[in-house]
Write a structure and sequence with these properties.
CATH architecture of the largest domain: Orthogonal Bundle
CATH topology of the largest domain: Globin-like
Number of strands: 0
Helix content: over 70%
CATH class of the largest domain: Mainly Alpha
Structural class: mainly alpha
Radius of gyration: 28 Å
Shape: elongated
Length: 188
């Protein structure tokens, strides 16, 4: 038999049968996956840590305030909720900017942390109180991510958590530095 560029009719028929078989199996498999998810479940879109934190900003601040009110040394300083949480929008903004920054890029210097340290000094805070506030920020941010873990891109979540912790520590360092400068200026 010579090949003339056309396939024999038997090969075309076999190919058609194979194609039909594969399509049927894919439909069955797809249906099996759908049944495992449940008829009422919708496919979930994977979101970034930054998207979740931005969306859950208000609830995270409420949770932060709830945790702060459980720490006797922090509530010993009489502040309203607004005064106590005034720095959080800028801190979240800095964290979100850092999460969106290209990997390996140098993070920007935060003037917000510097202002926060001076403010807390004037309000009667101590350095351990600043550390406690920062710890609570991390705990509540990670708690928010934990509550929404089924929405997160699992391939990036751990590296994003590391970035959040690093940014919170960078901000805390700057806050303590400005706090101590204000403290030294008050003594001089």
């Amino acid at each position: 038999m010579r090949l003339t560029g056309k396939l024999p009719p038997r090969f075309n028929a076999d190919w058609s049968v194979l194609t039909i078989f594969v399509r049927r199996r894919l439909r069955e498999y797809s249906g099996t996956l759908h049944n495992r998810r449940g008829a009422n479940d919708k496919l979930k879109t994977v979101k970034s840590v930054a998207v979740i934190l931005k969306r859950e900003f208000d609830s995270t601040i409420k949770e932060w305030l709830r945790h702060v009110k459980l720490v006797p040394s922090l509530v010993a300083v009489p502040l309203s909720d607004a005064e106590r949480a005034v720095h959080l929008p800028k801190l979240f903004e800095d964290v979100l900017n850092r999460l969106r920054l290209a990997r390996g890029a140098e993070p920007l210097h935060s003037t917000n942390a510097f202002a926060h340290g001076k403010l807390r000094f004037s309000q009667g805070y101590s350095v351990p109180m600043l550390v406690e506030e920062s710890r609570i920020f991390q705990v509540t941010s990670f708690g928010t991510l934990h509550r929404h873990q089924n929405e997160l891109d699992q391939n990036r979540v751990l590296s994003d958590v590391i970035i959040i912790a690093d940014e919170a520590d960078r901000q805390l360092t700057e806050t303590v530095r400005s706090f101590m400068t204000a403290q030294q200026d008050a003594v001089a």
